[in-house]
Amino acid sequence: xxxxxxxxxxxxxxxxxxxxxxxxxxxxxxxxxLPGAPWYVELLFxxxxxxxxxxxxxxxxxxxxxxxxxxx
Length: 72
What we know:
mainly alpha, 3 helices, 0% strand, elongated
């Protein structure tokens, strides 16, 4: 599989699957946890939620750029 194809597959999966699922989960979690919470709990929640969405993307990057060793 070419790197171009891998990038396309990873991009589509991330945009069409991961981000909607993650954002829906975070919205539901925020609706349960944050009403009436102190400001520092909200700050911590949104800081973590805003950072953790990138983890699968960081895991996909090595796969996108990995090329099998060429035969000689």
